[in-house]
Write a structure and sequence with these properties.
The chain is mainly alpha-helical. The protein folds into 2 domains: 1-81, DksA, coiled-coil domain (Four Helix Bundle (Hemerythrin (Met), subunit A), Up-down Bundle); 83-120, no CATH class. The chain has 4 helices and no strands. The chain has helices at 3-30, 42-78, 93-98, 106-119. Helix 1 runs antiparallel to helix 2.
Length: 120
């Protein structure tokens, strides 16, 4: 992969990481603040707890994605970006455009997902 393409993917990854971090900051500021005065009865409290639970799940997914992005940036730095971790073949450019933090080629990803289903 040439340096221009790698630079393009690096910029995409950095922009996505920044977007996720900004979403997290906004969520902490807006979604997780609960005033005891806003919860006059048990139904409101339950709805608030459900909302918080969903917010925590979304933040967890974003945390995992940020970790994957950081791993991809590390792979760019060490020169292994775009290389499948399993078979060491080049990951298709279209796959990287769809998921720039991919670590497996399509066929290895399918095998990995199949194993997860079988052993889950």
């Amino acid at each position: 992969m040439n340096t221009q393409t790698i630079s393009k993917f690096k910029n995409i990854l950095l922009a996505e990481r920044d977007r996720l971090l900004e979403n997290s900051k906004a969520s902490i500021k807006n979604d997780l603040n609960i005033s005891p005065d806003d919860l006059p009865d048990e139904a409101d409290l339950a709805a608030s707890e459900i909302n918080q639970s969903l917010t925590f799940e979304l933040r967890n997914r974003e945390r995992v994605m940020i970790a994957k992005i950081n791993t991809a940036l590390k792979r760019i730095h060490d020169g292994s970006f775009g290389e499948c971790e399993a078979c060491e073949e080049t990951i298709e450019k279209r796959r990287l455009e769809a998921r720039p933090f991919s670590t497996f080629c399509v066929s290895c990803q399918e095998m990995h997902e199949h194993k997860e289903k079988v052993y889950a």
